[in-house]
Amino acid sequence: MNGVHDMGGQHGFFGPVTHDPDGNERTFVADWEKYVRAWFIVLVFVQGRFSAESFRQAVESEAPLD
Q1: What is the pTM of this model?
Q2: Which of 4, 6, 20, 36 is most buried, judged by most C-beta within 10 A?
Q3: Residue span of the structural domain in which 40 resides
Q4: How many CB atoms are located within 10 Å of the residue 43 CB?
Q5: Residue 12 CB contacts under 8 Å (≥ 6 apart), including other chains
Q6: Contact assessment for residue 14 and residue 66, using Cβ atoms and an 8 Å cutoff
């Protein structure tokens, strides 16, 4: 597949996905990312408001630059 949401992104579109070979990458770059992840877990797994699959479908239906 060559979609924007595939691992590695679209070939030749956004450039390569980089990582820190020493393993010193931070899980969350900005503080707000921790809160979004926490709310996702609460809404999907604790309260059952929507499924992880419906969230994935919504994300994958967005335009690549969004």
Answers
A1: 0.52
A2: 4
A3: 31-60
A4: 13
A5: none
A6: no
